[in-house]
Design goal:
By secondary structure, this protein is an alpha+beta fold. It folds into 2 domains: 146 residues, Regulatory protein AraC (Jelly Rolls, Sandwich); 90 residues, Homeodomain-like (Arc Repressor Mutant, subunit A, Orthogonal Bundle). It is 46% helix and 17% strand. It contains 9 helices and 9 strands. Helix 3 crosses helix 5. Keywords: DNA-binding, Transcription, Transcription regulation. This is Helix-turn-helix transcriptional regulator.
């Protein structure tokens, strides 16, 4: 839907049997609105740019509307809404009446008078544009098609809301898995760690879990494990332990430990022990 202002569109149904009827719609740059008696029909708002705040006047309920968000305001609820400070707020709105609107909202279990986070608004704006084009000339014969499109619009809001919830749940689950992986590495760095089996137990491939881990920690799980081991190795080198025993305590082969240590520190563990540890005695 283009950014230019849309004039309000009104559509009067020719039959009381039509379940959903369009009252008006638009895409506007919003200024402060106060409605002491509320609005005669239900409002669906979808944010376009900027941010706004809503407040119900009878109980002081507050919620905001920002990127990828919608909200539904029932009929005849006293309210006000306005742009947040230092923002130009533009939103799309559709107002809906008809004998089935309340039952439909109850069936869909869409929340009222609160922010509805959406996974995306692209498909919703396409439906806005289709609806505008359909009723632009107010042809009476289009009433049933308008009703069907209003139903599709509400259904798409529900769909995008559920998709957002699922994505949010996956993100929380992934975050928990990543924290568990980091803890497992810290607590069991000296043991053989089969990262592929661990990832599989969490329902991930090791490649996918590695990508998530790197996004969170900046390194792969293998790199994180090596970092833990080399940090611990510096402590062990200060003790009266051979390089072989230190490697074993870290869960590493001695030859690999020596090569990897030199790659990180530029000298072998034995040289480090001779230069830094012996010099402190």
């Amino acid at each position: 839907m283009s950014n230019r202002r849309r004039q309000f569109i009104s559509s009067e149904a020719t039959s009381g049997n039509i379940p959903l009827r369009l009252y008006n719609m638009g895409l506007i740059q919003q200024k402060k609105i106060i409605r002491l008696e509320g609005f005669p029909v239900l409002h669906l708002f979808v944010n376009h740019t900027g941010s706004g705040q809503f407040e119900t006047l009878h109980d002081g309920r507050l919620w905001t509307l920002s990127d990828n968000q919608a909200c539904i305001l029932p009929a005849r609820v006293p309210h006000t809404y306005y742009p947040l400070p230092d923002t130009v707020w533009k939103h799309g709105f559709v107002t809906i009446t008809g004998p089935s609107v309340n039952d439909l909202l109850e069936t869909m279990n869409l929340p009222l008078m609160e922010t509805i986070p959406l996974q995306s608004t692209e498909s919703i704006w396409k439906l806005f544009e289709s609806l505008f084009q359909l009723v632009r000339d107010n042809p009476p014969e289009q009433e049933w098609n308008v009703s069907a499109l209003l139903y599709e619009l509400l259904l798409e809001v529900l769909k995008q809301s559920l998709l957002h919830h699922e994505a949010s749940t996956r993100t929380k689950s992934s975050s928990g898995a990543i924290k568990m992986a980091a803890r497992m590495i810290r607590e069991h760095y000296a043991e053989p760690i089969l990262l592929a089996e661990y990832a599989q137990s969490l329902g991930y491939t090791v490649q996918h879990l590695n990508r998530l881990f790197k996004q969170a920690y900046g390194v792969t799980m293998h790199q994180y494990l090596d970092d833990i081991r080399f940090e611990k190795s510096l402590q062990l080198l200060s003790l009266d332990m051979s390089v072989q025993d230190i490697a074993s305590a870290l869960g590493m082969e001695a030859n690999y430990f020596i090569r990897a240590f030199k790659r990180v520190h530029g000298i072998t563990p034995g040289q480090y022990k001779a230069q830094y540890v012996s010099g402190q005695e």
